[in-house]
């Protein structure tokens, strides 16, 4: 855990679970992302996402950006939605999301409960909202398709300000020579190997990545919830 001056946990370097299958799951996830990328024609918005020179695709439930009410994140076609849904249904992504969910619950139980109650309220309000993961309180995810996912310094201001987001690094790169996570406000440069998960408040902390070496690959899988969802529930839908 990363703590503040009052010993409150503000972020968690969760690492990876002690599982013999984890390397295989991580490898499967990276290969699935690379394979799926070959079948998607990315939109200009997905290619020019403001975070770096790589395509990024959001999936799940969101509110904001002109929406009148919470809804499923739209995709460029039904075929692309099917591809992304099939990708997230794979055991590797179900395991990655489940691990992040467990860490969130363990280190920030009150915030976790707030997320849980919000999502339960939304699904009761509109059962057509998609739920891509069996065990997670996060409403959305973004898949950064790389093959060199190196983010410029930024914050994700549409996310819940005091909430956490989970980032999992994937791919084939040397974590001693690149891919480190930089938390600029905290003055930290963090080694971030493939298969590791970190939970931080992305809306508050400016973050970026150290470049990787030539001929290496780095993808990332990010779980989060838009602040607009919580406002919608708080204001009685």
Give the tags:
Double-stranded beta-helix, 237 residues, 8-stranded antiparallel β-sheet, 3-stranded antiparallel β-sheet, single chain, 31% helix, 6 helices, 11 strands, alpha+beta
Give a quick summary of the entry.
The protein has helices at about 20-35, 45, 80-90, 90-105, 110-125, 225-235; strands at about 1-5, 10-15, 55-60, 70, 140-145, 165-170, 180-185, 190, 195-200, 205-210, 215-225.
Notes on the structure:
It is globular and about 50 Å long. It has a single domain, classed as Double-stranded beta-helix. The strands form 2 sheets. It has an 8-stranded antiparallel beta sheet, covered by helices on one side. Strands 8-7-10 form a 3-stranded antiparallel beta sheet, with no helix packed on it. Helix 1 (22-37) crosses helix 4. It is built from 6 helices and 11 strands. The longest helix is centred in the middle third of the chain and has 17 residues, at 91-107. It is an alpha+beta fold and 237 residues long.
Order of helices and strands: EEHHEEHHHEEEEEEEH
**Residue runs with pLDDT of under 50 for 5 or more positions:** none
For the record, the CATH class is Alpha Beta
Distance linking N and C termini: 35 Å
Q: Average pLDDT across residues?
A: 95
- The total of beta strands comes to 11
> Roughly how much helix do the residues carry, as a percent range?
25-40%
Rg from C-alpha positions? 17 Å
Shape: globular
CATH architectural designation: 4-Layer Sandwich
The percent range for strand residues is 15-25%
What does the largest sheet look like? 8 strands, antiparallel
| CATH topology term | Double-stranded beta-helix
Domain module count: 1
Strand order of the largest sheet: 1-2-9-6-11-5-3-4
Protein name: Prolyl 4-hydroxylase alpha subunit Fe(2+) 2OG dioxygenase domain-containing protein
Organism: Dendrothele bispora (strain CBS 962.96)
């Amino acid at each position: 855990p990363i703590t503040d001056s009052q010993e409150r946990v503000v972020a968690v370097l969760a690492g990876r679970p002690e599982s013999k299958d984890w390397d295989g799951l991580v490898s499967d996830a990276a290969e699935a992302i690379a394979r799926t990328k070959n079948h998607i024609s990315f939109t200009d918005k997905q290619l020019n996402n403001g975070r770096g020179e790589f395509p990024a695709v959001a999936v799940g439930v969101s509110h904001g950006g002109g929406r009148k009410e919470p809804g499923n994140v739209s995709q460029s076609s039904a075929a692309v939605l099917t591809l992304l849904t099939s990708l997230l249904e794979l055991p590797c992504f179900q395991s990655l999301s489940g691990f992040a969910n467990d860490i969130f619950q363990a280190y920030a139980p009150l915030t976790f409960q707030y997320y849980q109650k919000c999502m339960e309220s939304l699904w009761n309000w509109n059962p057509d909202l998609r739920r891509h993961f069996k065990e997670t309180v996060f409403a959305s995810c973004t898949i950064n398709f790389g093959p060199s996912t190196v983010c410029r310094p930024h914050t994700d201001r549409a996310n819940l300000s005091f909430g956490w987001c989970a980032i999992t690094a994937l791919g084939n790169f040397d974590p001693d020579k690149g891919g480190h996570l930089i938390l600029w406000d905290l003055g930290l440069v963090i080694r971030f190997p493939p298969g590791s998960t970190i939970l931080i408040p992305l809306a508050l902390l400016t973050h970026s990545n150290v470049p990787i070496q030539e001929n290496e690959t780095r993808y990332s899988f990010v779980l989060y919830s838009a602040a607009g969802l919580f406002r919608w529930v708080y204001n009685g839908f």
